[in-house]
Specification:
single chain; Arc Repressor Mutant, subunit A; HTH_TetR; DNA-binding; Helix-turn-helix domain containing protein; HTH-type_TetR-like_transc_reg
């Protein structure tokens, strides 16, 4: 099977989710990611997706049933497999390291996640949009969030506190501050066209270091 060159499908390709699909089906998925990310699910049509994929609209219905089925062909693998896998890799390769400074910790974690965001921005935008609008999906996502992720952050916070690198706040409060500042940058990039330049990344790290460093 000839593989599409669309980089937005790399996440699916790496996880072998596209194995067994025809070129036409892969083209439909790639087109749907483009259209949903650009217009939002509600403002997208199967006619536009078919035109972008270069196929008849009936090809969408015969494979994915309807527009909702096409959306779930994109977000279900993210929720069930791809996102947990990404979190598992973060836990194993970034959060398992014993960092010696707060800046080193933040630099590694933030740059790793921003790299992932840049590489998969369209798929992540579609997935996050559905989390906003689908309460059941949001609840399931929160319940299934990897426990190891929180445990490793908890260990990192305690470790950095012992080194005198991190403010002596409750770990939940530290996590909220980090999520708020980083999340604002992520959402600005995904939904409001704000740049995710190296300068922006560095300012985000500098801001968190300033906020979370203990006052002498």
């Amino acid at each position: 099977m000839m593989m599409t060159t669309n980089d937005d499908l790399q996440l699916f390709r790496d996880a072998h989710i596209l194995d067994g699909l025809t070129d036409k089906q892969i083209s439909i998925l790639a087109a749907a990611i483009d259209v949903f990310a650009a217009n939002g699910y509600a403002n997208s049509s199967t006619k536009e997706i078919a035109r972008r994929a270069g196929v008849a609209e009936g090809n969408i219905f015969s494979t994915f049933k309807n527009k909702r089925g096409l959306l779930h062909a994109i977000i279900d693998p993210v929720r069930q497999s791809l996102f947990p896998q990404a979190m598992d890799e973060l836990v194993k390769y970034k959060l398992a390291v014993k960092y010696t400074t707060l800046r080193e910790f933040l630099d590694n974690i933030i740059r790793d996640r921003i790299g992932y965001l840049r590489a998969n921005s369209k798929v992540i935008k579609i997935f996050v949009s559905e989390l906003f609008y689908d309460q059941d999906m949001r609840s399931q996502f929160v319940r299934k969030f990897p426990v190891a992720y929180w445990l490793q952050f908890d260990r990192q916070f305690h470790h950095l506190k012992r080194l005198g690198q991190l403010v002596n706040w409750k770990n939940g409060e530290i996590g909220e501050v980090m999520s708020g500042i980083i999340g604002e940058v992520f959402l600005g990039y995904l939904f409001f066209g704000q740049p995710l330049s190296d300068a922006t990344v560095q300012r985000t790290i500098d801001t968190l270091v300033t906020v979370l460093t203990p006052r002498v």
